[in-house]
Design brief:
The chain is α+β, with helices and mostly antiparallel strands and 420 residues long. 29% of the residues lie in helices and 13% in strands. It has two domains: 150 residues, Phosphorylase Kinase, domain 1, CATH 3.30.200; 211 residues, Transferase(Phosphotransferase), domain 1 (Orthogonal Bundle), CATH 1.10.510. Strand 10 and strand 11 form a beta hairpin. Helix 6 runs antiparallel to helix 8 and helix 6 packs antiparallel against helix 11. The chain is globular. It starts with 8 loop residues before the first strand and ends in a 45-residue tail after the last helix. Belongs to the protein kinase superfamily.
Length: 420
């Protein structure tokens, strides 16, 4: 593969390594950070220039003409999704040489094409190359390569045939049947493992934009995190947080981050709690089409989450009798812990992984199902729409699917003097 100047940082390799850790710095950020290993060996300085980041990325460098051919000249019928970042196109390349092939042959790829306006988009593009070019984990989407040619900036990902979690939770149609309880718990566990890896000493990265549209599913419903445009290196040394401008998506950002701009791994834990609650309820984090008092999912659901007897009131009616009461109560209790107003009371993502694994090991997701008669006529299922971006931060996710609807609004910067 082109520009393969270093091996990717994988979860397997780093779990066996006690040497120094290389930290990665996103493009355009005014502050730098370094990492040390558990043995306190000084970390190697990270690439800081655009050229260094691109050179160190263990992915292929594509020519624009190659991607133009692979996507059939970016034909409209090849569009997988659209957003503020630009559009995502379906393409085909040879799985060994990565040269373009005829449609329907070779390996399917998803090509994200950056709109040619605004510096913010370029910074997010470079941040994705920086992180996904260095990190490798089964629950992170694979970056195949990139293109930087004149004003053209593109990213090439593995194709995720089942699209986004957002689609399966909120979109209605024959192509997106409601996810079963077991599949929801499987997806939750996979996404949690991805975040846990990012937070570990192997990576020390804060994702900052965890939400259903950024969780992609492969053919076996294995969850992978995508879109690292807003990711940040975590705090180092004796620092407890990273100070940043507030960015992300309304409804998912932790309250202390919104108030102070202080970013920690626990900020991601809060976002995970929101997504877990969306998976349990089938409702969006923010939905102005709901009745008054139900627009904000966390605020509406919190009283029910604290009551073991009333937990059924927030559960997605489409789940029917697929879950056990004990399993639902434990999943709801985990969501409530993640959503604690005090970040110190939230679990780590590794603890979240352990809790979800216990749910699966106990097979509580399939034993002692609730009677469908018990839930009949409750009427608390979620409403749905398509996954594609509209009113949100700048990016489109490489997924399969179409449709267009209003997306959650982007968070505005509330502390302009702070670095992104």
């Amino acid at each position: 593969m082109g520009n393969c100047c270093g091996a990717k940082i994988s979860s397997d390799a780093l779990s066996r390594t006690e040497g120094s850790r290389r930290s990665r710095k996103g493009a355009g950020l005014s502050s730098s950070s370094s990492r040390v290993s558990s043995a306190s060996v000084p970390a190697t300085p990270t690439p800081r220039s655009e050229g260094d980041i691109l050179q160190s990325a263990n992915v292929r460098s594509f020519a624009f003409t190659e991607l133009k051919t692979a996507t059939r000249n970016f034909r409209p019928d090849s569009v997988l999704g659209e957003g503020g970042f630009g559009s995502v196109f379906k393409g085909w390349v040879d799985e060994n040489t990565f040269v373009p092939t005829r449609p329907g042959t070779g390996m399917i790829i998803a090509v994200k094409k950056l709109n040619q306006d605004g510096f913010q988009g370029h910074r997010e593009w470079l941040a994705e190359v920086n992180y996904l070019g260095q990190l490798s984990h089964p629950n992170l989407v694979k970056l195949v390569g990139y293109c930087l040619e004149d004003e053209q900036r593109l990213l090439v990902y593995e194709f995720m045939p089942r699209g986004s979690l957002e689609n399966h939770l909120f979109r209605r149609g024959s192509h997106f049947q409601p996810l079963s309880w077991n599949l929801r718990m499987k997806v939750a566990l996979g996404a949690a493992k991805g975040l846990a890896f990012l937070h570990s000493d192997m990576a020390k990265v804060i994702y900052r934009d965890f939400k259903t549209s950024n969780v992609l599913l492969d053919s076996n419903y294995n969850a992978k995190l995508s879109d690292f445009g807003l990711a940040k290196d975590g705090p180092t040394g004796d620092k407890s947080h990273v100070s940043t401008r507030v960015m992300g998506t309304y409804g998912y950002a932790a309250p202390e981050y919104l108030a102070t701009g202080h970013l920690t791994a626990k900020s991601d834990v809060y976002s995970f709690g929101v997504v877990l609650l969306e998976m349990l309820s089938g409702r969006r984090a923010l939905d102005k089409n709901r009745p008054s008092g139900e627009h904000n999912l966390v605020e509406w659901a919190r009283p029910y989450l604290t009551s073991r007897r009333r937990i059924f009131r927030i559960l997605d009616a489409r789940l029917g009798g697929q879950y056990s009461l004990a399993g639902a109560q434990k999943a709801a209790a985990l969501a409530l812990q993640c959503l604690s107003g005090d970040s110190r009371n939230r679990p780590t993502m590794q603890q979240v992984v352990a809790a979800l694994e216990q749910l699966q090991d106990a097979k509580e997701t399939s034993h002692q199902p609730q009677s469908k008669m018990t839930l009949a006529g409750r009427g608390f299922n979620g409403s749905g729409s398509s996954w594609s971006r509209g009113n949100r931060r700048s990016e489109a996710t490489p997924v399969n699917g179409g449709g267009r609807s209003a997306r959650p609004r982007r968070l505005s910067a509330t502390a302009s003097s702070l670095p992104e």
